[in-house]
Design a protein that fits this description.
The longest helix is centred in the first third of the chain and has 14 residues. This protein has a domain of about 50 residues. It is α+β, with helices and mostly antiparallel strands. Helices cover about 35% and strands about 30% of the residues.
């Protein structure tokens, strides 16, 4: 049986998602872009890929154990990710980002991926173990894909900070990106919950259904 395609996401509040979806529909050329519908707007935190049986159940149970700390964000400039995804890079308080990064334990990946570094860093391995025992850290350490690990390792190598973004549209196949992208509306909102989503691919694009929610 096929598995579930899962990711941990932070839903954009419905009132804000409606405003953003209306803005993208009005401001982005529909012949060039396919806009993301309001109900699909979210911030992806951890992508798990396709998971079967026990793994999917373990991920679900861990998500329900996570105590999510709300994060206030502001819509930032449009940036193109992965060649076709047009997203707003969210403006976030640096302290909140550092706290989230610590809870995820992403900084400790290098201790595992670089054995020499770990061997010469006092307390590094114990720090990694500590984060890996927490629900959010375990989700990140045990269930992220190899591609995610590799991206994260490059991010640390180049000292690039963790960023949060929300994809608003995707460039249509064969279309070329216009020289200038419009400035999105100045909106501020709170990412107040973390949700485990199942993504299903269809002829009209992806649809997302909620599987589990973190504690608040």
């Amino acid at each position: 049986m096929p598995g579930q395609r899962l990711f941990l996401g932070l839903p954009v509040p419905s009132d804000v998602s409606e405003q953003l979806a209306n803005w993208t529909t009005q401001e982005l050329d529909s012949s060039l872009f396919r806009c993301v519908p309001a109900e699909n707007l979210h911030v992806t935190l951890i992508f798990f890929g396709e998971r079967n049986g026990q793994e999917a159940e373990t991920i679900t149970n861990l998500v329900r154990q996570v105590e999510w700390s709300p994060i206030r964000v502001q819509i930032g400039p449009l940036i193109v990710y992965s060649r076709s995804a047009v997203a707003s890079k969210l403006v976030v308080d640096m302290g909140a980002l550092e706290d989230l990064n610590k809870r995820l334990g992403w900084g400790q990946y290098r201790f595992v991926l670089d054995a020499d570094y770990a061997a010469n860093s006092e307390g590094a391995l114990s720090d990694w173990t500590y984060h890996a025992t927490k629900p959010l850290g375990r989700l990140c350490h045990e269930f992220t894909t190899v591609a995610d690990l590799e991206r994260r390792r490059r991010r640390h190598r180049h000292s690039q900070p963790l960023d949060l973004h929300v994809t608003l549209a995707r460039l249509r196949k064969g279309a070329h990106l216009p020289p200038d992208l419009p400035t999105p509306p100045n909106l501020s909102f709170v990412l107040d919950r973390a949700v485990l989503f199942e993504s299903k691919l269809g002829p009209g694009g992806s649809s997302y259904s909620e599987v589990a929610e973190s504690r608040r």
